[in-house]
Amino acid sequence: MTGPILRIENISKRYGKKDVLRGASLDVNKGDLKILIGPSGAGKSTLLQCINFLVKPDEGRVWLDDQEVHYANKRDLCAYRQKVGMIFQDFNLFDHLTALENVRIGMVRVKGMGKAEAGVRAVMELERVGLKEHMQKYPAQLSGGQKQRVSIARALAMDPKVMLLDEPTSALDPELIGEVHTVIRDLGNNGMTMIMATHQIGFASSLASEIVFMEDGRIIERGTPDKIFNNAENARTREFCSKITELYGERG
Amino acid sequence: MPESLTAVIDALPYLLQGAMVTLVVVVGAMALGFALGAPLAVGQVYGHAVLRRFIAIYVWFFRGIPLLVFLFLFYFGLCTAFDINLSAFTVAIIVLGLISSAYQSQIFRGAILSLPEGQLKAARALGMSDFKAISFIIFPQALRLSIPGWSNEYSILLKDSAVTYALGVAEIMARAHFVATRTYQHLPLYFAAGVIFLVLTWLGTKALRLLEERARIPGYSPH
Question: Which CATH superfamily is domain A6-248 in?
Fold first, then answer.
């Protein structure tokens, strides 16, 4: 029996006088898909960004594969981040690079792979997200859904052990959400370990191994989708779930 | 043919040689200004507080003193005091380059700050060190956004370069003055000098416009 692939313990973050995270802990096993839900300002995005130290937590520790991450050491931090893929709400593709170059640059500049070898892999990853024919386009020439799929390909090309997805479909037009969900569903089916913040309850409940409800920087309740959506213990969880179900539909 | 016209035609090859000198001074100063200004801008945006303070003082210093004072200070002052043997031409490039570095650092700093914050975040998330992220992600984008600012900087440097005439650099202004005082054709010669400056300004901004066009990212407009 091996331990969790990713262990997050007691992460706290405060901005000025505001506590954004108050001691959030999470154990993620290999192949898990944890879904973070909760109102805006609950700390979902900050928690995800603290996990790969894009935001430096004030307190708390993180382990990947039973190795504690010493993020003050730049070399350790860069090595760790290669193993943790990040998907942003607003894509953050590199605007001056084509889709292909976006996917290739991490392999070339971080992993030190040759351009040709990295190019072959980049084409493969773009094919996997259905964008091979768009590989020569620049981000500004792609739709939102296509951009997000490129950004997923860019993360996958680094062979991450865990993926963090910060509301990957929130910035998308409704008709573009499906194509991104399809890619994420494929990842889940192929055993990728993921933590995702989302408001897409229907999608979340059909895929999640666990739903984590957050509010005011705390994890309030966690459990299977069925438990959280139908039999939540906490009144706030029930209230939030009924509101969001109304907004985003039962199953999607 | 009127005497004024023949005076200009006779002096033209001599003046155009001066235009070449002017161009070399300006391009040299722009290159030096860029080589110093770009790292200054990076330091001012991403550097430690002490470094940022130092750069702010550097910028204040080189933007705050008139060009003519710097030229004299450097050429007649420093070069004499420390027995440094530099030609007026070299001093002109160094002094204009140093001043330009202060201005160019601010052009470049503005370009860096106008990039979305997510670019650096995404680069870090891939495991890039800050140095790599700045070199491969931030720098190439900021460079493109800086081109319109350079166009401005070029035309200012071009006009400022006329001041180096005070050191005896054989540029357009020095040569026009030299011929004018000998032929007494002041009006046509200084008019010709002005026209040459206008043509050089037009050529330079045109060239930078072409560069901007070539470096443009398809479909991209940041604003």
Answer: P-loop containing nucleotide triphosphate hydrolases (3.40.50.300)
